[in-house]
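As described in the Methods, two query proteins were run sequentially through the folding procedure within a single session, without resetting any intermediate state between them. The first query and its resulting structure tokens are shown here.
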Amino acid sequence: MESAKNLKLVQKTWIDCLLQAFHFVPSIRRLIISFWVISTILLPSVFAQDWTRWDLPEGAKMRLGKGSIYDVKYSPDGNQLAVAGSVGIWIYDVNTRKELSLLTEHNAGIYSIAYSPDGTTLASTSYDDRVCIWDTTNGECITELTAHGERIRSITFSPDSSTLAGASMEDTVILWDVKTREHTTTLRGHKSSVTSIAFSPDGTTLVSGSWDDTLRLWDVATGEHKATLLKHSDGVSNVVFSSDGSTFISSAYNRGGIYMWDVATEQNIKKLNAPFSTEIALSPDGKTLAIGSWGGLLLWDVESNIQKYELIGHLSSITSLAFSPDGSTLVSGSYSDLLLWDVATGAQKASITGHTRGVNTVAFSPDTQTIAAGSREKIRLWDVSSGKQKTVLYEYDVGNRSLAFSPDGKTLASETGWSIRLWNVDEGRHITTLKGFLGNSASGYGIASVAFSPDGRFLASGSSDSTVQLWYAGRTYKGTLIGHNAGLTSIAFSNDSRLLVSGSRDRTIRLWDVVSEGSINIYTGHTEEVMCVAINPDASIIASGSMDDTVILWDVATVEPNHIITAHKNGVQNVTFSPDGKTLASSGGRDDPTVNLWDVKTGELKTTLKGHTNSVTSIAFSSDGRLLISGSWDGTVMLWDYSQIDTDDVTPQLVEDANRDGVVNLQDLIFVATQFGKSGPDLTADVNSDGVVDIADLLLVANALGDGNNAPSLRNIPILDSLNVDDVKHWLIQAQQINNPTPAYQKGISVLQQLLELLTTNKTALLPNYPNPFNPETWIPFQLAIPSEVTLHIYSYDGKLVRTLTLGHRSSGIYQNQDSAAYWDGKNEFGEAVASGIYFYTLSAGEFTATRRMVIRK
């Protein structure tokens, strides 16, 4: 189940099947149609609780938490609210505050979003350095704009919706033509990253703010720089225009000031006396300014320059603000809270729940019914079966980097700097705080890891003062394990509770006897800090992960490595064994959103779990081994169905899979061709590992295409029309010049010849459009035997011309996929959406003409 949109499609398909089955029973048909109409109307509320299962990656059962909030925007009609963050764009119904859809085209957190003033599109820019335009009617990404290497961090539409502007980290402002999707202008002049941009209401002027502490005014039509305004004492964070366009207000970071400017004179006319600012929003009438920062949230009277209200409710910094189009409501987002306020009274009207700040750590309860997830200011307890949040344990801004359940599941221990808090899980109540013997707060980051022994006798903590502290029954101090020369990062008990393993920044792992408090063994071999440790169920193997990017599996008895695995980039932060001890799960450091599963016996990679959009910070298996959970800086906890992940029979990755998508197909040919001429180590396109990407590598991929071993049939490859006839001809010429008689090369040449035959069609044809029926868009494929000028005419059922699509001169070949086929958006020559019904399309290519039928169903 991916989203309400997809559920609606599935539901409708099911209804269609029933209608066909009961074609000759009118009464039943009427009942089915009535059910479909009612269920469609009720769809958002019916499926709202299922948002935990929307748009899940392969292998995942559920996503807990909606992720962090980075930007919020009202739709122009005020009926919907778009919330951009770490996992995508959530669309809410403003009146019901229910989830309508989740847009997940981006594979990283989203910096900024903007509705076009006409409400037809939504733009987004992300940490993945992509700018997408979404159709607001169906939630589809209709295009991706090219930024030519610029990293866009803020976007906004011109008042007439024709231009999209993007603020770049490369010190520029980019302008795109929305209709043609072309990059039209680059505004240059700032000396540091551009942080905020705004169009004047008449669309003639654009103002930009930058980390260089300046504001610049630009003429939109000519791209000329009009003025530079100097007043702020720190980087500019936001700029907003008044509704009449005569003034604009700018704010800066770190108490850098809030100023009002006269557009005509280009002079500062007022400084607002607010104590802080990072995020600002101006009410539609220009009378009230919302001001948010790490310090809180205020409503400010612009004319009198005095505070109207302080809005209390957020626990962390304000990340985004937006007024409703009618000005009656303010929505404010912090990393994990989304609150709606009455502007007239300053009272909180409502909240939208479910958003979550970056997760530091996760833990399973022993009965696997509850998951605890710790973020900087909260500990959340989730019900595993329903995905619902059970309770929140508040720990404002104190850490929660490590959590541990007691074996009976009744107590939860959490790290809070230099102390440990114990919580009653059933009641969600703080029991006590352990402070003594926990080290010196002046010596570093505090406690890094806490763990209960499986028999419940001991609670242990490892901290930055290089020691492990032991407690009886979680309350009474037992002793201190001393031996490491640098701060502890991780600790773990053996299943029999007799042994404890610890990892340290001194690059060593130590094994301890818990009862005697003596050191048993020291394991050395990592070249950087050890960040995580785990011990397998029978205490025969220790796993350690390090900042040197490796995981070492140690034989406990011999103190020697069984396997040294290069596991991740940017360090290894977490390791944990499955309950049967056959699999080790690991996660990496900064910017690594994956979880790797390793065969403990062989040290080989079994599979990689992909689904988070930011670093994975914590992983844990359920006690029954059926589930694996991962917590991430994207603010979510992913539940993976480990019992269904076939990790014991994974096909090894082929070197011919050049683009590393898990299959060898024509995309690998294209990928290798795009890398021609590149040289150096670690190039996946260098299939033969000779240090350079050339035609020899392409032939080896072509050879794999012709194999029966995991390679698809050439005639069944849906992306055949991604290839160009001239490219394949050129490849063949290069291949024949190699003069390599080995079977692999000769077979590769044979496959290229087969491709050329498939691409060189001897028949011009008009193919069926897809989808059909459709709403509102469709693609019309065709093939050309000879180069031709191609035109497509679309007619209504009564023969009237609706639209002409001039495709221009096309070479011979197959035009079948969405990048090459003709595209119709369901609109006539005047840009108006056409009615439901039967339409005809006629292809004209030289002397060839052909007509087919299609259906729009709304």
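Immediately afterward, the second query was submitted; its sequence and tokens are:
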Amino acid sequence: MKNIFSSSGVIRIKGARQHNLKNLDLSIPKNQLVVITGPSGSGKSSLAFDTLFAEGQRRYVETLSAYARQFLDRLQRPDVDFIEGLSPAIAIGQHMASPSARSTVATTTEIYDYLRLLFASVGVAHDPKSGEVIQRQSLQQIADEILKFPTGTRMMLLSPLARAEGESYEEVLDRVRREGFVRMRIDGTIVSTEEADTFSFSKKKVHQLEVVVDRLIVGEGIGQRLHDSLGTALRWGKNRILNLTQCPGSDLWEERYFSTDFCNPKTGFTMPPLIPKSFSFNSLLGACPHCQGGGLLPHPSKTLICPVCQGKRFRPEIIAVTIVEQTEQYRREWNIHDFCQLSLTQAKKVCEHIFFSESEYLVVQEVIQEILKRLHFLEEVGLGYITLHRESGTLSGGETQRLRLATQVGSALSGVLYVLDEPSIGLHPRDHTRLLKTLYDLRNLGNSVIVVEHDEETMRAADYIIDMGPGAGLEGGEIMAAGTLEQIIANPRSLSGRYLSGALRIGAPAKRCSAPPLLAPHPGWITVVGACENNLKNLTVGFPIGLVTSVTGVSGSGKSTLVNKILYPAVMKQLHHSKIAVGKHDTLLGCEQIDKIIVVDQSPIGKTPRSNPATYIEIFGLIRDLFTNLPAAKVRGYRPGYFSCNVKGGRCEHCRGEGMRRIEMHFLADVFVPCDVCEGRRFQREALEITFKGRSIADVLEMNVEEALSFFRAIPVIHRKLARLHEVGLGYLKLGQSATTLSGGEAQRLKLAAELGKRETGKTLYLLDEPTTGLHASDIQKLLEVLFQLRDRGNTVIVIEHHIAVIQSADWVIDLGPEGGDGGGELLIAGTPEAVAACSRSVTGKYMTH
């Protein structure tokens, strides 16, 4: 067997005690793909992020300037004796991207920076009103164009005249005569300058005046005269020339405008020089002046699209700059707005066929290669269906992580320690191979790749596996097994190894409920009719009432569009007259069979460290009341607010009850460090002196759910709510854990627990989006039991999911596809898991039979 420690060195960790880690000593091979797995809360993130990455970041800051090092005393050192062999570390986590509408997929991946450079370098400008091409020509280029006319062609060089401010037309004529010109054209008629005195000028009309600089006949020997006359004409015409030509044998005079400015000399429209900033809607040079690049205008009752730019964010002249896609079958021009409406896969195809002249290609060769390289990487990690203009804040945690992962591959760094948090989130099993290739690419560049992951395929592909356990919270923090896949499977202490070997499996449900005998649309179904939002192709889809339905399909096939953008807002509109925008569809049938709809998604439960599980499931108020009623609190006259982190009273005012302070690093991402006054305990000393069973309010918030269940056993109302957290596999969470540290999957299960604690009528529709995120196989079993409890009470559960075990456990499966983006949006099959597995068109079905 190959010794993966010998050739590339190791990272040695001695005495790791961060959070629940139990004084761990271990060696991790460098320059390998290493997976850290184990039950939820077993210490995986504590080892990977809070120990390895945190120490790597701290050591990196040590190498920076004196200004940077002043922050070192605020960067908390992980609780570990020592770590050796540590490389510079980069963490790629699940944290949601910026919610700003100005942060898009294109800007996040730096593709937009290269696009701006591309359009500024070789974009073809047009007059936004006439659509005519705008170009700048030198005097010599103009002369060469004129000399191409046939010998004997008669021509006149005219200079368009403009009045100075306050100057009359008569004063313009006097100026022309003083310079010795003898002919003019006034409103299209050639007259002598003396005859012009008889012309009647109107103050209510704009007259066109051009002075005739020279009359020529094309032939040998006119080159020098033409050159001199063009110089005079450009000077009088403010860099614009009108050339009148009459070819031999013709009585017609044709007009042609020339200019040495970047403009349309015919209409006078002038374009400023194009630079990369011209193509940024965050710059005054490119942004629409009416909406400042936002595309929208404020309105008292609704938001309106800006009529000037039609929501495109840019100035009209910037929208009129295009690049050309040229294939054997067609030719198409793209402006920067339309290009960014493309999916990543479509954009890659366009970039492969952009037409360049030889000189243009030399200028932008590296630019177009950088764009294609990034698009290729993004497609490789299964994100080809996402559009370039999509706002970063609308991406899931998994999509955001894979965007950052692709960007890192594109940077081609080596000697780096990459720490990733479940990059397979949101991926269909079909796309796992692409993701693994990207992880291998990072490793093969000479990097150490450490992945916190539960996905079986990723574990099987790893060079080395570390299995944490045996349980969550205080019951975790140990290394149950470490080694190659074969060594993990052979180790009887490894829970993950037993699932990998097949000794343990996620069990099938005790019973499976059947769909109503009459298929949708009929009673017993909620039916979406004519769904055609985004890529959905006029679908009619029925969801059986009182069953667990799994909506499946490859990434980008239309699952979220169907459930989150059509079904949910349509039900909300019928039940509660909601004004949420509803995706395009004809109608929704069967809504009268439910009385409530609950969405349990992965959005954060709060945006500040003050938000935590205790406040979200509404037990913190009960705990405050408990402390308020203690004798010592009554003697001091403390009210419930005194034990709150959110109002003045007993909270620490230095950190305002957050326990953490934000440090702006300027050169790095902002970091949160413990408050140096309350040392992260959030409360003043006086509040901490009040105790229940020997524990202060801060001690209670430091308890995990498992501890709190025992601590509050005699208080049923609190114990019942905590039990719900335990049921959904969150027994390891601390009651006061900051909402900013929760993963999307943890936030989703927290919301599910909160809903389980409420009364329901048995006619509730639950919508869940990938609830298995962050769950070990053992925890998925618990989640399925909760979902089937909801079903057995008469409720309807709809789950968007990729996990094959969950799909196989569902009562009904709706499979979309066959591909993502434009290649998806079809209903491949709706039926039992067995029917989906037998469907030849279903990619999901193929994996269900493996």
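DSSP finds 29 helices and 36 strands in the chain. We note this only descriptively and draw no conclusion about the first query from it.
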